[in-house]
Design goal:
2 domains, Dihydrodipicolinate Reductase, domain 2, single chain, binds nicotinamide-adenine-dinucleotide, 339 residues, globular, six-stranded mixed beta sheet, Rossmann fold, alpha/beta
């Protein structure tokens, strides 16, 4: 029997995870919850996902707008083997007591602190530790991207120290209230929280990060500098390692990929749903080693890179698959991530 997945919070991340679950043959969506009867609630119904109201007293608001609601959050929990909590940062922590009390497994997103589950997940790094767990946090878009490239480099060449700058999008495309519109806004907390967040997944890495917000909505961008342990490492070695790493893709200026704009255009041309880029694109030309220090640039599609990780976390926690590589391959094949 398929694993029954409930999505609490059908927004940017939740709707993508729901669609990705629907593409797998070992799990299915039993319902999604919304707080208000808006266009995303209508989308859920159009896609055939049973709709639940996250706030019980609001059920009549949905029914007044002609939207069929199956019940409230407690009913969704009853129907589910696992809940993927995709509510705004901080709400997941409040919901965690409800999930624990109901004895339902739960996945939280990167807007929550590590303590929400006491376990932070990345498929490549610690899939085995998620096997059979009741509570897991899939780390944020930036942390997922950093883990995807740092982990294989650390494993093969050793890392003394990472310094990375996150050039962050001001808001997601749908967020008409975010900014800056015409400024570059540095995060004054130096180092930023991203380095410690990477250490919740890869504890024995030394990393400091800084962060800046810029007026763009489509992607984040990372400028990464690594002091390598192995002094004989060549750029070709790093290229080969990243080419062999799942969910990392090399892009090149030679093909006219000179910015995040062209990466999104590639995804649009490939008819990717919502122009999603689940992989982390790394610019080949930016992979340079000088005095044993590695430099590279990578882009992050913040709305979608965490989606495959959520699918793998479901598979590990509900014991559908013990082998990380098999789960990663299955997820990626069903998403058609590789073409
Ligand atoms: P979002 O605002 O797009 O969606 C959140 C959804 O939760 C909305 O449908 C909203 O109606 C619903 N909601 C609000 N309050 C709720 C409540 N009390 N109970 C149930 N549902 C409620 O947010 P998002 O961007 O999808 O972010 C969700 C989580 O994913 C956050 O932890 C965020 O940090 C994380 N995340 C976001 C991004 C990104 O770039 N958007 C990337 C990675 C991780």
């Amino acid at each position: 029997m398929n694993c029954k997945v409930g999505i609490n919070g059908f927004g940017t991340i939740g709707k993508r995870i729901a669609d990705a679950v629907s593409l797998q043959n070992d799990m299915e969506i039993v319902g999604v919850s919304k707080t208000s009867p808006n266009y995303e609630s209508k989308l859920a119904l159009d896609r055939g996902y049973p709709l639940y109201c996250a706030i019980p007293d609001r059920i009549s608001e949905f029914r007044d707008k002609g939207m069929d609601v199956e019940g409230d959050l407690n009913d969704l929990i009853d129907e589910s083997d696992i809940i993927v909590d995709c509510t705004p940062g901080g709400v997941g922590a409040k919901n965690s007591e409800l999930y624990k009390k109901a004895g339902v497994k739960a996945i939280y997103q990167g807007g929550e602190d590590h303590q929400v589950a006491d376990f932070s997940f990345n498929s490549l790094v610690n899939y085995e530790e998620a096997y059979g767990r009741d509570q897991t946090r899939v780390v944020s878009c930036n942390t997922t991207a950093l883990c995807r490239t740092l982990y294989p480099i650390k494993k093969q060449y050793g890392i003394n120290k990472v310094r990375a700058t996150m050039i962050r999008r001001g808001g997601d495309p749908k967020q008409d209230n975010r900014g800056p519109i015409n400024a570059i806004k540095p995060k004054m907390k130096v180092p930023s929280h991203h380095g410690p967040d990477v250490m919740t997944v890869i504890p024995d890495i030394e990393i400091d990060t800084t962060a800046v917000k810029v007026p763009t909505t489509i992607m984040h961008f990372h400028s990464i500098n690594i002091e390598l342990k192995n002094k004989n490492t060549k750029p070709e070695d790093i290229i080969k390692t990243l080419e062999e790493t799942p969910r990392v893709t090399l892009v090149t200026e030679e093909h006219g990929i000179e910015s995040t704009a062209q990466i999104i255009e590639l995804a649009r041309d490939a008819n990717r749903p919502r122009n999603d880029v689940w992989e982390i694109p790394v610019w080949k030309e930016s992979i340079v080693i000088k005095n044993n220090e590695l430099y590279y640039f990578q882009a992050v599609h913040q709305e979608s890179d965490v989606v495959p990780e959520n699918i793998d976390a479901i598979r590990a926690m509900t014991k559908l698959e013990k082998n990380p590589t098999k789960s990663i391959q299955k997820t990626d094949k069903n998403l058609q991530l590789n073409p």
